[in-house]
Amino acid sequence: MHTVWKGSISFGLVNIPIKLHSATENKDIKLRQLHKECKTPISYEKICEGCKKEVKNEDIVKAYEYSKNKFVVLDEEELAKLKKENEDKAVEIIDFVKLEEIDPIYFERSYFMAPDSGGGKAYTLLRKALEESGKIGVAKIMIRSKEQLAVIRVYQETLIMETIHFPDEVRSTADVPNVPTEQEVVKKELDTALMLVDQLTTVFEPSKYTDEYRTALMELIEEKKASNQVVTTSEKQPDLPSNVTDLMSALQASLDRTKKKKPTTRKRTAKAKTS
Fold this sequence. Notes:
Elements: E1 3-11, E2 14-22, E3 62-67, E4 70-74, H1 76-87, E5 91-97, E6 107-115, H2 120-133, E7 136-143, E8 146-155, E9 158-164, H3 187-200, H4 212-226, H5 247-258, H6 265-274
Parallel strand pairs: 1-5
Antiparallel strand pairs: 1-2, 2-6, 3-4, 5-7, 6-9, 7-8, 8-9
């Protein structure tokens, strides 16, 4: 598994060197956009809205728009310093709570935790402590330039870290439109609904749920391939710009460049987009 984060986590005076690995993967089928006329892949350019010129990566700065058309510019050195200061901190478990106390709306992404060199014993200790107490740990961690709130729990003999949203990232239900107020429900209708719920109640078995759309789409693609309903782009394609924003185009541009010269900004950008 690819390591997405490496550092240490502690509870009390116990320090555990760990590595994080993505616990899930996106299996969406990626479809490219082609020019209908010549079947050439479409690329995307970064255009300045002011001067209508194409902008290169080295000519771009980051800024925060604090009001309409008013920005605070932040240079890379300032951002890098903040990132370094936070990444260097060991992740500390702040609290221990019960899993059922956290509503699922807070959960974001899961990572498997593996002990790094010399961390096996402390890793096992934390896992056992969580199992025996029936609790999960709450911690903060810096991942990809963003501070994350996270919980640590046991999953099939493995420690798993799940990033969760901060409270101010969860929108208020008061903002949801057209939610009906308390209304009287006919008892006969409620009894029928409860009967239906009872009939459909079962033990959760993840393996029985499949992505039927993805399966059908792949079958359609394979059928077209088998019947030779395919198109091939021309050998000489236009060079993709260095500031490609489409993910697949960015990856392909990076691969092409490694054949010609030592990769520079383009390769780093492509890697950043894939992380």
